[in-house]
Amino acid sequence: METLFPDLPSTGVAATLGIGLALFLFVTGINFAILWRKTISIWRHGKN
Can you tell me the distance from the alpha carbon of 35 to that of 22, in angstroms, rounded to the nearest whole number? Predict the structure, then answer.
């Protein structure tokens, strides 16, 4: 980070990117889990 953004305060940038990435992964994980459970339930209903 320091080499890419030498002018910006690295701590603030790292914190902002870290929080943004954590929220993005959190929301993506929830959406993926919901889609996964829906797919499994549909697959089980179709199989039985």
Answer: 20
Place of tokens 């889990």: 33
3-state secondary structure the chain: CCCCCCCCCHHHHHHHHHHHHHHHHHHHHHHHHHHHHHHHHHHHHHHC
Could you report the per-residue pLDDT of 9-19, keeping only the tens digit for each? 667 888 888 89
Contact at 8 Å (CB) between 18 and 10? no
- pTM for this prediction: 0.54
